[in-house]
Specification:
eight-stranded parallel β-barrel; 13% strand; 309 residues; alpha/beta; 12 helices
């Protein structure tokens, strides 16, 4: 990754936690350009987008945005919204599961209460035959997030999984441990700002590790979600599974709402299972900034969009 790109990304990620910037974003809402990456502020808006995706043969994972709460009362509200979300998916008859962030359930404030909140959501999902993904956030929460997923699985909840980020040095060990469990995993490159002591600083090293982790999981036969917009990675996966004779029922490709829509449609039309990560809610600002930080082209898109409005 070029020095200029690293500085650009670091600057944007620093802004993601700025209160004044969040307040400004909340005031002007999705008009800032976030609607490209966020399905709306309400559940009904999000479900409309999921219906449109389903019509193209693409499944979804719905995420009610929010993270880093300050009071456990906020966690209660998020828990209730997720139960409502699961009910909404069932009532609408759409093909979607859900993703949530442990920090919005209180992992940094009261780990046991957080676990209880997530367990209740997982139980609600089980009643509907649905699945819950525990999103992976920055590395201070990695152990606790994996611990919650393993504890739930140990209690018999098989409809839960988590995420492994390829840019962390520890991910190879985490993959082996969670494959032995076995646990449904989403593999990603990683989108948080991490120190060199914990994460590969060079893009080439992240990409290489991502490929290694993908191949290890696909060989294991444990269901794996491969989350990437990188067509070279997708082509490598397609060649690998054909060479190894791996059934398409053992994996899926995942991409983000508003990014590479044509590629998502093409893969679905070719018979691959494709799932689109569909975020919604009023607390969209940190998510939006991380999407901008991933690629300078995303910023240019937003600026062009703003000049037209």
């Amino acid at each position: 990754m070029a020095i200029g790109t690293r500085l650009f990304r670091a600057a944007l990620l620093a802004v993601a936690g700025n209160r004044a910037a969040k307040a400004f974003a909340s005031r002007y809402g999705l008009r800032l350009g976030a609607r490209q990456f966020v399905a709306g502020e309400t559940l009904d808006e999000a479900l409309d987008q999921v219906r449109a995706l389903n019509a193209k043969g693409i499944e979804a994972t719905l995420d009610h945005l929010g993270e880093g709460i300050r009071r456990m009362g906020e966690a209660e509200a998020f828990k209730q919204e997720y139960v409502r979300l699961l009910d909404g998916i069932r009532a609408a008859g759409v093909r979607s599961n859900v993703s949530l962030k442990p920090t919005q359930m209180g992992i940094a404030l009261d780990p046991e209460a957080c676990y209880d909140n997530i367990r209740r959501i997982v139980a609600a999902a089980a009643r509907h035959g649905n699945f819950v993904r525990l999103d992976m956030e920055d590395s201070p929460h990695t152990d606790a997030t994996i611990g919650i997923a393993r504890r739930l699985q140990g209690e018999g909840w098989t409809n839960v999984g988590t995420v492994i980020q390829a840019y962390l040095y520890r991910s190879d060990d985490d993959i082996r441990r969670l494959t032995d469990d076995p646990m449904n995993l989403r593999l990603v490159k990683g989108a948080y700002k991490e120190p060199k002591s914990r994460a590969y600083p060079r893009k080439a090293d992240v990409d290489a590790n991502f490929r290694r982790l993908i191949e290890a999981r696909l060989r294991s036969g444990v269901y794996t979600a491969i989350a990437t917009h990188d067509e070279s990675v997708i082509r490598d996966v397609q060649a690998f599974v054909q060479r190894e004779g791996i059934d398409r029922a053992k994996y899926e490709f995942q991409m983000l709402y508003g990014i590479r829509g044509a590629l998502q449609e093409r893969l679905a039309a070719e018979g691959f299972r494709v799932r689109c990560y569909v975020p919604y809610g009023k607390m969209w600002y940190p998510y939006f900034v991380r999407r901008l930080a991933e690629r300078p082209a995303n910023v240019l898109f937003v600026l062009r969009n703003r000049t037209k409005n």
